[in-house]
Amino acid sequence: MEMNKTIFIDRDGVAIEDKGYLDNVEGVELMPGFADALKTFRERGFKLVIITNQSGIGRGKFNAEVVEQQHARITELLKEFRVTIDLFKVCPHAPEDECDCRKPNTLLFEEAGQELLIDFEKSWMIGDKPSDIQAGKQMGCRSILFNGETHCDADFFTENWPDTAQVISILDR
Ligand SMILES: [Mg+2]
Ligand SMILES: [Zn+2]
């Protein structure tokens, strides 16, 4: 069976600008260089998956529908670059819900793995929080901390998308 290598990407602060509990669609803004990096990953045969903690839903700040609309907006913005995200996975829970899907927990990665037949050892997690890195590492992915605090055990640290794409292009196997 053909297994798929995948780039797992955190949403806020990595795929789009982090505006803190974004509760509308208009505020969705792609990070500079994100779309071009996705094209590079696609050319290398990666699947593209966004995994995001949206505790604003569980905290009652906004509903799941607005998050779906935000993801439709991301898809629309990426259309201009002729690249698509294969899967969006959302944890809607607050931390006190103690769910299995909020990063650093890995349920959403496991679900994505089944849906897309993912080979985690050939895959990467890119996030700006230690919880992103922890989740990716638990799944056996290599990890890149993107524009985050450096006291974290990520494999690599980058500050922008061109550098991130370059690291992966060099080390992809
Ligand atoms: Mg983030
Ligand atoms: Zn959850």
Outline:
The protein is α/β, with parallel strands linked by helices. It has helices spanning 34-43, 55-58, 64-79, 107-116, 130-138, 161-171, and strands at residues 6-9, 47-53, 87-91, 124-127, 142-146, 156-158. Strands 3-2-1-4-5-6 form a six-stranded parallel beta sheet, with helices on both faces.
Outline the secondary-structure elements.
Layout: E1 6-9, H1 34-43, E2 47-53, H2 55-58, H3 64-79, E3 87-91, H4 107-116, E4 124-127, H5 130-138, E5 142-146, E6 156-158, H6 161-171
Parallel strand pairs: 1-2, 1-4, 2-3, 4-5, 5-6
Helix pairs in contact: 1-6
This protein binds magnesium ion and zinc ion (ZN).
Radius of gyration computed on alpha carbons: 15 Å
Going by CATH, what is the homologous superfamily of the domain at 9-119? HAD superfamily/HAD-like
Q: What do we call the CATH topology of the domain at 9-119?
A: Rossmann fold
C-alpha geometry: globular
Please give a structural write-up.
There is one protein chain. This protein has 173 residues and is an alpha/beta fold. The protein has helices at residues 34-43, 55-58, 64-79, 107-116, 130-138, 161-171, and strands spanning 6-9, 47-53, 87-91, 124-127, 142-146, 156-158. It has a 6-stranded parallel beta sheet, sandwiched between helices. Helix 1 links the parallel strand 1 (6-9) and strand 2 (47-53). Helix 1 packs parallel to helix 6. The longest helix is centred in the middle third of the chain and has 16 residues, at 64-79. It binds magnesium ion and zinc ion (ZN).
